[in-house]
Write a structure and sequence with these properties.
- By secondary structure, this protein is an alpha+beta fold.
- Helices cover 52% and strands 14% of the residues.
- It contains nine helices and ten strands.
- Helix 1 crosses helix 3, helix 5 runs parallel beside helix 7 and helix 6 packs antiparallel against helix 7.
- The chain binds flavin-adenine dinucleotide.
- The site of flavin-adenine dinucleotide has 21 residues, from strand 1, strand 3 and helix 9.
Length: 384
Amino acid sequence: MTEQDLPFSLSAGGQDMVARARDFARGYLREHAAAWERERRMGREGLAEAAKLGLTRLDAPREEGGEGFLAKLLVLEALSEEDMGFAFSLTNTQGMTGRLMVLGTPSQRERFLEDVLMTRRLAATCLSEPGAGSDFAGITTTAVPCEGGWRLSGTKGWITNAAEADLFLVYAQTDAAQGWRGIASFLVDGRQAGFERAAPYALAGGHVIGVGGFTLTDFFVPEEDVIAPAGEAFKSAMGGVNQARTYVAGMVNAMVASALSHAVTYGKTRQAFGAPLLTNQGLQWSLADVANKLEASKALTYRAADLIERGEDAMLAAAHAKKFAGDYGAPAIAACIQTMGARGMLDDIPLGRHLMCAKLACYTDGSTEMQNERIAKSLEKEFG
Ligand SMILES: Cc1cc2nc3c(=O)[nH]c(=O)nc-3n(C[C@H](O)[C@H](O)[C@H](O)COP(=O)(O)OP(=O)(O)OC[C@H]3O[C@@H](n4cnc5c(N)ncnc54)[C@H](O)[C@@H]3O)c2cc1C
């Protein structure tokens, strides 16, 4: 996608950041992404390269190198044209730098900021558990007050970057009787006693995301490292989710655009029955359908992004954008693969990885069904 497609303009700094991301994607990521998937591992050295380009400052305030949400969205789109899994891993770890810069105490900045910025340490956000995903209020990791802080016990699962991360924003229940109001969030330094990492999940694809889990056993968190107390943590988690839903939709759009580009480029030259593939109306119409849905999805995504950038309520717009992207992404990419014949299955091009990541996008930051719930709640107000 190019800047000309955008219904908004970016600052010069934002344009520069996006250009750096695009060059990195078309150079470094294009060269390495397939190998990470073949080796079923995270792209740790790629994250370090991205850090050198300032791409771990996507959530940073402007005075510390951030360029706002629209620039972040376009950076993640640029990276996703080659490897959405990598982009997802990057945005999850760099989210911690933004948090430390904006909300961190001097001691937290001193202990963690530089290491996370340079990806010497990776970070992760941990709501989900093996027994609780969509039902976030149903988490069973507990936090019990003790002298000087809290003791955390429980198991987290399905956490991006958990394969290698060791700094975590962990959500835990302080009082089950209070339901969501009892949930607080804590900064967990995985290098301390009481932390045990599980083996990363063997997935159908997307290993670069480093999805895994860990168990905390009487893990001590000092009072200073309580990030949000009971009553506030659940709301702050839900507050950030609109951004995430919007950039996940943008990542799907970028993968679809990339798949279309591969399909069209190949279809122009591949000969069948004495003519280029793309002279067949059946294939043209299939790709026209993909392009049509891509346009609709971009409009929904950029509408939500614009609301977020302007500080307005984006809850419903983000739900619409994420649901639409989740519904059309995987079938659209599959259609592009189909147009290319067997060639579309080889891993020197990213379409197979795109396909699996488009499916993963249906779960992260609230599943498609949870977007349906959000949209359904608005029906009476919007149409009743
Ligand atoms: C690649 C990847 C990365 C992730 N990274 C993170 C991370 O960094 N941090 C984190 O905390 N979590 C992460 N997750 C977990 C993600 O948030 C959960 O997968 C998601 O919340 C859904 O939970 P679940 O998979 O347990 O599905 P479940 O909650 O068990 O639901 C199963 C299915 O039932 C549907 N369903 C559930 N309840 C209802 C209902 N009331 N009505 C209709 N349908 C319903 C769901 O939508 C889903 O399709 C990640 C997941 C993936 C795949």
